[in-house]
Design a protein that fits this description.
Blueprint (H helix, E strand, L loop, with lengths): L9 H14 L4 H8 L3 H8 L7 H10 L4 H5 L20 E2 L4 E5 L10 E7 L14 E8 L2 E5 L2 E5 L4 E5 L4 E6 L4 E7 L1
Antiparallel strand pairs: 1-2, 2-3, 3-9, 4-7, 4-9, 5-6, 5-8
Helix pairs in contact: 2-3, 2-4
Length: 187
């Protein structure tokens, strides 16, 4: 029988970020400065008070010389991760940007791709503009998503995808259905 996947929540993510930071003998201020945000924000993240959007997790991961899986995963790493859809205990974690994230394949911390399942409802959306190193692919599974890359706005329906250099400013500008579920894969 395969090991049960550890499901991240705001406190586990924060604890693991703090653990990695302390293992590197780094201060809150040092990592916050490296990320370009306040010591207070990083403290709230480490304390489990908020789960930041993916772009913020990418900046923290970069500052700690890891990736999002490295921030989230504790325990055994694997060469292959299978997570059946019917697995109990899997639930998305709400972020401050108004969407919920469910990181996938967290047991494989050395991977180059970072897959995240994102769910957003129109009434919860307050997404900020994001920009981070790497490339990004968004693939819409359910619902209709309005997404802006630079000054161009795209409407994505189920099955539509968009691939872009994620250093370009980007964000969700609208949800034209009861909710949107999409796969966000970035490096």
């Amino acid at each position: 029988m395969k090991d049960k996947q550890t499901i991240p929540d705001s406190q586990n993510i924060g604890r693991h970020i703090r653990k990695l930071r302390k293992l590197q003998h780094r201060t809150l201020q040092d990592v916050a400065d490296n990320c370009g945000f306040t010591k207070s924000l990083l403290s709230k993240i480490e304390g489990g008070k908020i789960v930041p959007p993916v772009a913020t997790l990418i900046k923290i991961a970069s500052a700690l010389h890891t990736n999002i899986s490295g921030l989230i995963a504790e325990g055994n790493s694997r060469d292959c991760v299978f997570v059946p859809a019917a697995k109990n205990g899997r639930s998305p974690v709400p972020t401050e940007s108004g969407y919920s994230i469910l990181p996938l394949a967290v047991e494989m911390p050395g991977k180059k791709m970072q897959p995240v399942l994102i769910t957003v409802r129109p009434e919860d959306l307050n997404d900020k503009v994001h920009s981070h190193e790497g490339e990004e692919l968004i693939f819409v599974l359910e619902g209709v998503l309005e997404f802006q890359v630079d000054s161009e706005i795209y409407t994505l329906n189920p099955g539509d995808s968009i691939f872009f250099n994620s250093i370009i400013e980007h964000h969700i500008t609208g949800v034209h259905s009861d909710y949107v579920k999409f796969l966000d894969i970035f490096n």
